[in-house]
């Protein structure tokens, strides 16, 4: 490598690190636990770039030895093939709206997908990993938007990161979209379910049931305008919430001690979801909803890129949620062909309306099987999810919400007068740009502090209107 090339590489690496450290990365990021595939990828973005060094300790901390050696050899060579930063898919980096999607794990292989904007350009990168001596290491990076493959660029062998092939002999219950079900079955088998168990479920009469209402509703995007409750409504809700908090004091005490989630915040979420457990008139059933979505949702022939991205996200959520529900039943020896899980039209279950892909965060305060229709389990499970999945920052200082009524009023006006806005997120779930309220009203006291917590709550529900209502209810219940 020439001295000039090396200097250019170092300058580019330094600029990448500087810009990455200053980006507004939303709190939807997952835990930085480096013992998980997601944690390895997140750590890669937080540390100095490993693409401009020959230090094996740094490179092999993230990468499989074979790929790591290729990176070292390329950087040390006279004519390097890598002339950009793979982490941002460009020569310069200014990343916003960074998000990691849950890994698809099969035995010792995994896939983690990073989505973000680099200089406002939507970017999607797949990280392939494998477990080596109990530690996850990256075997390849593939850009969906840039159409490059890191291993191929470096002249490596594709056998290093073979695709995870389904081995299940079980088939789709509807004889449609076999590839979706094979991917689901392979994932479930890798996590301990046997082909016989899956066959018993998906050849049963239960698996033949279908619910087409969710398929139709989820195929259409509906945007609800922002709104604001009256002072009288808020006072009534706050009073009801305080009574609920007193009634379940021991569970909320445990919530705050174990998870650092404010009791008023948790109770406000439960109010929003099921009116503190009072709503029970569910017209759908989770397994049937998710199975129907996986089997019957279709992408319209004339769909544009945005519609394609949205459909891919919905199908991914349905598949992961169906897997989560089945693994929950497998873990607790529940017969899913007999057990019913009343749900919303989207498949969400219980008092906190968990999507079943989060069922692994469901816990109990006793020795019984966790049950989200039991208030104590709903409260603790919500805290577990907020802290260990969504990175809740710790107890919120409720006094900093004293301007929340004014904030909500200003946001409703802002939403009414503008299109494509959010309280604190700069892109929607299809990675389309949004105007941020917090950028234009930055002088409001503690708005940045409030936005930090709002970004975490938006992992639970991506609606600004929802999150602001939660914060408003929580503040008035606290008073």
Detailed description of the structure:
The protein is α+β, with helices and mostly antiparallel strands. The protein folds into four domains: about 5-160, Nuclear Transport Factor 2, Chain: A, CATH 3.10.450; about 165-205, no CATH class; about 205-220 and about 280-385, no CATH class; about 230-275 and about 390-479, no CATH class. It has 19 helices and nine strands. The strands form three sheets. It has a five-stranded antiparallel beta sheet. A two-stranded antiparallel sheet has the order 6-7. Helix 10 packs across helix 19. The model is unreliable at about 1-30 and about 160-165 (pLDDT under 50).
Q: End-to-end distance, in Å? A: 65 Å
Number of helices: 19
Annotation, overall tally of beta strands: 9
Strand content: 5-15%
Estimate the global geometry from the Cα principal axes: globular
The name of the CATH architecture of the largest domain is Roll
Class from helix and strand fractions: alpha+beta
Strand order of the largest sheet: 1-2-3-4-5
Compute the number of structural domains.
Answer: 4
- Along the chain, the helix and strand elements come as HHHHEEEEEHHHHHHHHEHHEHHEEHHH
Look at the structure and give the CATH class of the largest domain: Alpha Beta
Residue windows where pLDDT falls under 50 for at least 5 positions: 1-32, 159-167
CATH topology of the largest domain: Nuclear Transport Factor 2, Chain: A
Integer-rounded radius of gyration: 24 Å
User: Which percent bin holds the helix content?
Assistant: 40-55%
Mean pLDDT: 86
How is the biggest beta sheet arranged? 5 strands, antiparallel
């Amino acid at each position: 490598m020439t001295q000039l090339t090396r200097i250019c590489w170092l300058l580019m690496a330094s600029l990448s690190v500087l810009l990455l450290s200053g980006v507004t990365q939303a709190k939807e990021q997952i835990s930085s636990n480096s013992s998980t595939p997601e944690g390895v990828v997140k750590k890669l973005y937080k540390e100095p770039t490993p693409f401009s060094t020959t230090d094996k300790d740094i490179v092999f901390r993230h990468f499989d030895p074979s790929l790591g050696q290729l990176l070292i050899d390329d950087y040390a060579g006279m004519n390097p093939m890598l002339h950009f930063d793979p982490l941002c898919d460009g020569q310069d980096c200014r990343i916003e709206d960074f998000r990691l999607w849950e890994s698809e794990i099969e035995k010792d292989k995994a896939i983690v997908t990073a989505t973000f904007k680099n200089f406002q350009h939507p970017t999607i990168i797949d990280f392939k990993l494998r477990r080596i001596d109990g530690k996850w290491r990256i075997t390849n990076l593939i850009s969906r938007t840039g159409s490059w493959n890191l291993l191929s660029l470096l002249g490596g062998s594709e056998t290093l990161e073979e695709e995870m092939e389904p081995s299940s002999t079980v088939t789709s219950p509807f004889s449609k979209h076999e590839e979706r079900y094979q991917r689901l079955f392979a994932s479930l088998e890798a996590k301990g379910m046997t082909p016989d168990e899956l066959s018993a479920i998906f050849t049963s009469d239960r698996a033949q049931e279908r619910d087409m209402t969710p398929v139709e509703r989820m195929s259409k995007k509906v945007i609800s305008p922002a709104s604001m409750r009256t002072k009288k409504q808020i006072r009534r809700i706050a009073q009801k919430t305080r009574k609920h908090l007193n009634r379940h004091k021991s569970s909320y005490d445990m919530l705050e001690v174990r998870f650092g989630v404010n009791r008023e915040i948790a109770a406000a979420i439960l109010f929003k979801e099921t009116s503190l457990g009072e709503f029970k008139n569910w017209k759908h059933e989770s397994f049937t909803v998710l199975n129907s979505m996986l089997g019957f949702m279709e992408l319209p022939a004339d769909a544009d890129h945005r519609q394609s991205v949205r459909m891919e996200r919905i199908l991914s959520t349905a598949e992961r949620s169906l897997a989560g529900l089945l693994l929950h039943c497998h873990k607790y020896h529940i017969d899913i062909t007999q057990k019913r899980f009343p749900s919303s039209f989207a498949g969400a279950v219980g008092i906190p309306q968990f999507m079943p892909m989060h069922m692994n965060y469901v816990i109990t305060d006793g020795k019984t099987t966790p049950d989200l229709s039991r208030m104590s389990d709903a409260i603790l499970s919500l805290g577990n999810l907020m802290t260990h999945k969504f990175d809740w920052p710790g107890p919120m200082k409720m006094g900093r919400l004293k301007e929340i009524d004014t904030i909500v009023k200003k946001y409703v006006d802002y939403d009414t007068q503008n299109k494509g806005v959010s309280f604190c997120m700069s892109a929607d779930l299809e990675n389309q740009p949004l105007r941020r309220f917090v950028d234009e009203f930055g002088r409001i006291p503690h708005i940045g502090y409030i936005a930090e917590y709002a970004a975490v709550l938006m992992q639970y529900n991506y609606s600004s209107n929802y999150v602001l209502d939660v914060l408003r209810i929580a503040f008035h219940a606290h008073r």
